[in-house]
């Protein structure tokens, strides 16, 4: 099984020597508050769309400042195209990368997430954290920026419509492959299905609702129990 | 990469035709309250030890009735022996299964967990959910009982000393292998590092401690976001 297949991560070492290999990534970097950036409308008219800093600002306008150490994932609606290769790559020439058309992140947005919000990982529901047309110039600025900053990339995420844009916790439990440059992960999210019942005021008014309350950010310790 | 290597699961179909394959296991069955059964002392004098119903009773005496849909894992201390094959199998004859000596579950305890506590998964820090000497009679009662009841088995778990015996949540995010009889998983646990601050009385007395509070069992919804 290849390391970069299906839903998988790119370890920072994938682009930048000396950075974390798959088995070296601290497990605390493999989960975090979920930040879903929905660009489905924008992508409809532009398959070469790249998520902008403005898109991130709009998210914050709606939900408040992003939590630190989040997992930010673009929802472009692209996963509806799986497993049709021609649709996924936006091209009938599957061996010609410069013909590819699919959306991803703009390097400015990735840089902002790293510098301003100490992001844990950046993901896409497309084949790459750099958009399809990045191959034309053969420069992959998002990949190299992520790698250089020891930030994990996640590719081929799916089912993002099921996750709230704010308030989930996303887990990226990549297999701990020795010496790996990436690896497959069963990515999943948890969230509260009754968020209206979980604010502090409601709990203080009604002690029984305590047992419906979960602040995921207080799940402070993760502990590996695999080999 | 083989399906049954390193820390991995056995899908119910592994022993019982018609039961869940790896990709068919509902994701809700792949996490749950962690129940760690510590039998390290008993194993020291008996490498053929099998966890008994009495061991489960002792856990409940200490922590109260087990939550439903838990992930119960034996902590025999065996993971200290990784990766020494002779120590893991308790035998120098690695090709002769009937010479193996390592602990696991007794089928009566597994049956009790299924019937009385609706367990989600049963795990071991050894090579098999049946003890080493099961090979002598070539009967693997725990495997078949788990399979017949569509319950997941987990083998080669490690680092169990780091997880509290009660109060964690354990995740078993096995790769979603199509048609699989098992598969590797980056198994991990979450738990509160300040449990004393998280009881209801303390919270009601001090509203700021709300933000340290997590009842993991209220993380009701899991959502797959992989392929």
Automatic annotation (TrEMBL), chains A, B:
<dbReference type="GO" id="GO:0019441">
    <property type="term" value="P:L-tryptophan catabolic process to kynurenine"/>
</dbReference>
<dbReference type="InterPro" id="IPR037175">
    <property type="entry name" value="KFase_sf"/>
</dbReference>
<dbReference type="GO" id="GO:0004061">
    <property type="term" value="F:arylformamidase activity"/>
</dbReference>
<dbReference type="Pfam" id="PF04199">
    <property type="entry name" value="Cyclase"/>
</dbReference>
<comment type="similarity">
    <text>Belongs to the Cyclase 1 superfamily.</text>
</comment>
<dbReference type="InterPro" id="IPR007325">
    <property type="entry name" value="KFase/CYL"/>
</dbReference>
<protein>
    <recommendedName>
        <fullName>Kynurenine formamidase</fullName>
    </recommendedName>
</protein>
